[in-house]
Amino acid sequence: MKKPSAAGGDAAAVREHALVLVAHGASARVRLASGEETLARTARRGLQCVCGDEVICSSDSQRAQWQLYEVCPRRSALYRSNARGRAELVAANLTLLVVVVAPRPEPDLFLVDRYLAAAASAGIGSLLLANKADQEFTLELRADIAALEAAGCAALQCSASSGAGLEALRARLRGETVMLVGQSGVGKSSLLRQLVPGSGAVVGELLKSDEGRHTTSAAHLYTLPGGGALIDSPGVRDFAPAPEMLDAGTLGFAEVAALAPQCRFADCAHMREPHCAVRAAVDSGAMSARRYESYRRLRRLREQLLEQLPHSQRKPRGSG
Ligand SMILES: Nc1nc2c(ncn2[C@@H]2O[C@H](COP(=O)(O)OP(=O)(O)O)[C@@H](O)[C@H]2O)c(=O)[nH]1
Ligand SMILES: [Mg+2]
Ligand SMILES: [Zn+2]
Questions:
Q1: Residue 190 Cβ < 6 Å to ligand 1
Q2: For 6-52, what is each residue's pLDDT tens digit?
Q3: Residues 50 and 148 reside in one and the same domain
């Protein structure tokens, strides 16, 4: 039986801001402003939250059952594209995307570029992290990393197994909301264990009370010991940016953004147009040919994905 209350039954309700640690269907593991962690169920259909979201939760006065009824405005949102070109929200409020590469498995630099492009287009900072510094880096990989640095991408080296470079990494991550991404096998889980002691045991436990469903592929938010947060997203391995979230003019390529004002046409796509400063920079060696090839591939991928979308959903951003 419901307790009668003076102000329309809501008088005893408690409201609190909370941070989403794991989101899964209609429920989420949240950390309340008080520090308490609890399960909250979304109050209505269509209310979508993701890892990293700030939300408002409410409960009865016993604080036993929490409902999640509002998602606070996001400072940033990282989207991926599903196979049909639709945007899927991966994580909210990230400030730094850490793209991990290693000598093995064979690096996929085009995947790295797609992550960097998505981060730049979303206003999220990025860091290239070369892990397994205890192994030998080929000349080619060194050159690829140098080209990314020349394009303005910050880079660090470390080894999750030897510990080399981890202090500098911790210092860089302090206070940031970070997501570690990269190919399977580059060492993301190993890095997580180093950066968040005890995190290994937590995976898979966070939502155990949620109808026994498993969440091994769901993103988890961990608190960094020095302040800040780290989101581990095992579900994001291959990655295509959501086409309508990419900056339509530059696709998030920093070199292209820097060169584009010198192209003859203001809407130059830097593909076949005459007097294109981007292509001139590639010809002169000022821009990496591999990065430019990556730009071209991403432009084609973006077009393919946009074509699959219904017209109403094509809302190219940027370039005006
Ligand atoms: N030599 C070396 N091996 C590493 C390093 N970091 C991770 N590994 C190994 O690389 C493999 C994949 O690591 P894991 O953390 O599971 O990669 P993930 O798939 O990105 O999560 C494991 O065998 C790790 O022990 C490192 O810095 N140096
Ligand atoms: Mg892993
Ligand atoms: Zn151009």
A1: yes
A2: 444 455 688 999 999 999 888 999 999 999 999 999 999 889 999 99
A3: no
Domain boundary among 232, 258, 276: 232
User: Ligand 1 in contact with 134 (CB < 6 A)?
Assistant: yes
> Do both 112 and 41 map to the same domain?
no
* pLDDT above 60: residue 319: no
Phi/psi region, residue 201 (left: phi>0; alpha: psi -120 to 50; beta: rest), is alpha
Shared domain check, 158 and 45: no
Which of 6, 40, 71 marks a domain boundary?
71
Cβ proximity of 70 and 56 under 8 Å: yes
- Going by C-alpha positions, the residue among 303, 301, 255 that lies closest to residue 279 is 255
Q: Ligand 1 in contact with 194 (CB < 6 A)?
A: no
Q: pLDDT digit string (tens) for 192-204?
A: 999 998 886 544 4
How far does the centroid of ligand 3 lie from the alpha carbon of residue 302, in Å? 17
User: Is 200 a pocket residue for ligand 1 (Cβ < 6 Å)?
Assistant: no
261-305 pLDDT tens trace: 999 999 999 999 999 999 999 999 999 999 999 999 999 999 999
Q: Which atom of ligand 1 is nearest to the CA of 191?
A: 15
- Does the beta carbon of 157 lie inside 6 Å of ligand 1? no
Residue 283 C-alpha to ligand 3 middle, in angstroms?
A: 13
Q: What is the CATH number of the domain that holds 117?
A: 3.40.50.300
**Cα separation, 27 vs 285, whole angstroms:** 52
Q: Specify whether 161 is located in the same domain as 209.
A: yes
